[in-house]
Automatic annotation (TrEMBL):
InterPro entries: Glyco_hydro_28, PbH1, Pectin_lyas_fold, Pectin_lyase_fold/virulence. This is Uncharacterized protein. It comes from the Eukaryota. Its main location: secreted. The keyword Transcription regulation does not apply. SMART domains: PbH1. It comes from Xanthoceras sorbifolium. It is found in: Secreted, Cell wall. Pfam families: Glyco_hydro_28. The active site is at residue 240. Belongs to the glycosyl hydrolase 28 family. The keyword Cytoplasm does not apply. Keywords: Cell wall, Cell wall biogenesis/degradation, Glycosidase, Hydrolase, Secreted, Signal.
Length: 393
């Protein structure tokens, strides 16, 4: 065991927290230990059936029950843990879950999926290990599993867990409402493909707080239909930054409204804060967006709106039908890894309107001169310090 006093204190606090939570559940409900259903934490036994059985029995009780995964390494999945449940349910991951690596399992769109549940809690200090290195070479050939999916989940919380080396996205939040995600750790190499940390779509009233995310794609990506999203105190890097989008790829996408990203830091990321849309005619709106108090450390594209998004570079030229309006970039400071610190490349048919730049201070210290900005079809106003000089019309 480490001789570090802080580490010993953390272990003690974690143990005391575990005891208090277990005691509370015992007083109010029941603990369903997966080991009692035949699970073995040896890293080899397939425990999918045991997990399903433990979940089923916990889900049938009206009390706030716990599915308990003790210390150990549990091979499980792909698995769907579905509701509705009769009462609140706590998926308490104290040990580590590892994903299968066979080709059949890697062809399914999920590893662990929670569906149609109200008052779900996922916590416990353990790890979801997606074993992504086994599948990343095949990323261009097929869709790979998302590590943890939440579909149609409400009034729920995820905290104090780690997601390691997902094959695809780490967490996918779809059609959910009133979800709080905080104090989580997401880890994958900077060159791992498509390993977004947290992806949202068609969800509202979502909070993502006080977490550390380092991955190979967007630390957080906010997709169509996202409304009232609060992102705060996120440490991002490596990765592609915090992005709204990509949007406008298909017809009839829902609007994005009310996204607030505050007090976040980006270190050695491809992008800082970004809005990205495809150059397609499909119409939707992005509005009431705030990026505030963002710290940058060697970020390639610190502030970027890209309405010609095309990662494959094989897209047909065109103008995006997505309307971007009422976006605030304020108190953004730090260093850029490239000279172009601010890029606002908006749609020719749907120019960006009511863009606000306030107190921007981004330095570049490489060859070619000071940091610069570039705008196309972008209209708005600037206030306070502007470094590089604003290019808004």
């Amino acid at each position: 065991m480490s001789s570090n006093p802080g580490f010993r204190s953390f272990l003690l606090l974690s143990f005391l927290l575990l005891l208090s939570i277990v005691a509370e559940v015992q007083a109010r409900g029941k603990i369903f230990n997966v080991v009692a259903y035949g699970a073995r934490g040896d890293g080899r036994t397939n425990n999918t059936k045991a997990f399903c059985n433990a979940w089923y029995h916990a889900c049938q009780s009206t009390k706030p029950n716990m599915v308990f995964i003790p210390f150990g390494i549990f091979l499980v999945g792909p698995i769907v843990l579905s509701g509705p449940c009769k009462g609140p349910i706590n998926f308490f991951l104290h040990g580590d879950l590892v994903a299968p690596t066979d080709q059949a399992s890697s062809s399914i769109d999920h590893w662990i999926s929670f569906q149609y549940i109200d008052r779900l809690t996922i916590n416990g200090g353990g790890t979801f290990d997606g074993q992504g290195a086994s599948a990343w070479p095949n990323n261009t050939c097929r869709t790979l599993p998302i590590s943890v999916r939440l579909d149609f989940v409400t009034n729920s919380e995820i905290h104090h867990v780690t997601s390691l080396n997902s094959k695809n996205f780490h967490f996918n939040i779809y059609a959910c409402k009133n979800i709080i995600i905080h104090n989580i750790h997401i880890v994958a190499p900077g060159d791992s493909p498509n390993t977004d940390g947290i992806h949202l779509a068609e969800s509202n009233d979502i909070q993502i707080l006080n977490s550390v995310i380092g991955t190979g794609d967007d630390c957080i990506s906010i997709g169509p239909g996202s409304k009232n999203i609060n992102v705060s105190s996120i440490q991002c890097g490596p990765g592609h930054g915090i992005s709204i989008g990509s949007l406008g790829f298909t017809p009839n996408e829902d609007n994005v409204y009310g996204v607030h990203v505050t007090n976040c830091s980006m270190t050695n990321t491809m992008n800082g804060v970004r809005i990205k849309t495809w150059a397609k005619p499909y119409r939707s709106t992005v509005s009431h967006i705030t990026f505030d108090h963002i710290n940058l450390n060697s970020v390639a594209n610190p502030i970027i709106i890209d309405q010609q998004y095309c990662p494959s570079k094989r897209c047909k030229p065109g103008a995006s039908g997505v309307k971007i309006t009422k976006v605030k970039f304020s108190n953004i400071q730090g260093t850029a890894a490239t000279q172009m610190a601010v890029t606002l490349n908006c749609s020719a048919s749907n120019p960006c309107q009511k863009i606000e730049m306030r107190d921007i201070n981004i330095g570049y210290y490489g060859v070619g001169g000071a940091a610069s900005s570039c705008c196309s079809n972008a209209y708005g106003a600037c206030y306070g310090q502007q470094h590089p000089p604003s290019c808004l019309r």
